[in-house]
Amino acid sequence: MSEIIGSQPDMEVVGVAPDPLVARDLIKQTNPDVLTLDVEMPKMDGLDFLEKLMRLRPMPVLMVSSLTERGSEITMRALELGAVDFVTKPKLSIKSGMQEYTDLIADKIRAASKARIKPRMAQVVDANKGPVGELPMVRNPLTSSEKLIIIGASTGGTEAIKNFLVQMPSDCPGILITQHMPEGFTRSFAKRLDGLCKISVMEAAGGERVLPGHAYIAPGHSHLLLARSGANYVTKLDDGPPVNRHRPSVDVLFRSAATFAGKNAVGVILTGMGKDGAVGMLEMKNAGAYNFAQDEATCVVFGMPREAIAVGATHEVGPLNELPSKVLNYLATHGSRALRV
């Protein structure tokens, strides 16, 4: 890791700590722009250290996680505690792709260095009501299976998606989500969300009928697309090459929504590094979809929303805590005849 970071012309390793106790002192001495933090460390659990750090000295943290089920679950918790993003430890066979791995780490550190870090505030979540203090829900439940919500996110997106989904009513339109995340982590992410939300959240397997009150998350190994089977919307997986350096790619999902849903889709682009999703969201808009973007003030990284706004793909821009109500209000006033009052 030190060699990778040190090889970048715009980065410098100012300290290396073998455990959190040493890290605590080094942080005071060196005041780093970004901290890379191993999930598993001696002398103190990585999560305990992260929680204390984000409470006492908030700073951009990039987690380094193992490609295991336990590693993915710990990483999900780390993102909830305030970590900006994570990278996985390389497999033994990474040598052939070492440059790609180096570029990935460097890009994530650059993004983390620009991230907006806010002091962590305790949030009480009720599985039946969502987070305490949320905006009131739209009074009209939505039961139309024709309308769809299509979401794309990257850096900072796991928490943004959670905050969006916990405000969705149990009979909201079907939701398809692409979050840049490696294979294995998407399953843990979906499982965690399913326990917090009123809707059902699952990792897409491909071929599922898209149902109201359900959210389908792109698995880390494949692009997620929307397709049709007769009169029904269904999910489709594609293991084709990365798009915008990502698989799953937000552009791939958005383009499929433009093709098969058109004006029945509502697009939402959330915090993220890079430009993935901008062109696909513009195609959605041109096909009749109505699109929302998270504003700069509430994004961890404003890259993806900024690019979508720049190309003219969005209709409305707003803070994260208002987007669920904005989307539901739009659907309540532009829903199909299946809308129940």
UniProtKB/TrEMBL annotation:
Q: Which GO terms describe its biological process?
A: chemotaxis
* Response regulatory domain segment(s): 1-104
List the catalysed reactions: [protein]-L-glutamate 5-O-methyl ester + H2O = L-glutamyl-[protein] + methanol + H(+); L-glutaminyl-[protein] + H2O = L-glutamyl-[protein] + NH4(+)
Q: Which residues carry this modification: 4-aspartylphosphate?
A: D38
Q: Into which EC class is this enzyme placed? A: hydrolase
Domain named CheB-type methylesterase: residues: 141-334
SUPFAM superfamilies, per this entry?
Answer: CheY-like (SSF52172), Methylesterase CheB, C-terminal domain (SSF52738)
Pfam families referenced in this protein's UniProt entry, alphabetically: CheB_methylest, Response_reg
Q: Which UniProt keywords apply?
A: Chemotaxis, Cytoplasm, Hydrolase, Phosphoprotein
| Major localization listed first in the record, in broad terms | cytoplasm
Instruction: Name where it's found.
Output: Cytoplasm
Residues at the active site: S154, H180, D276
E.C. number: 3.1.1.61, 3.5.1.44
Write out the GO cellular component annotations.
Answer: cytoplasm
Q: What modifications does the entry list under PTM / processing?
A: Phosphorylated by CheA. Phosphorylation of the N-terminal regulatory domain activates the methylesterase activity.
Show the GO MF annotations: phosphorelay response regulator activity; protein-glutamate methylesterase activity; protein-glutamine glutaminase activity
> What start and end residues bound the annotated signal peptide?
none
Domain comment as written in the entry: Contains a C-terminal catalytic domain, and an N-terminal region which modulates catalytic activity.
In UniProt terms, what function does this protein have? Involved in chemotaxis. Part of a chemotaxis signal transduction system that modulates chemotaxis in response to various stimuli. Catalyzes the demethylation of specific methylglutamate residues introduced into the chemoreceptors (methyl-accepting chemotaxis proteins or MCP) by CheR. Also mediates the irreversible deamidation of specific glutamine residues to glutamic acid.
- Family the entry assigns: Belongs to the CheB family.
This one is known as Protein-glutamate methylesterase/protein-glutamine glutaminase
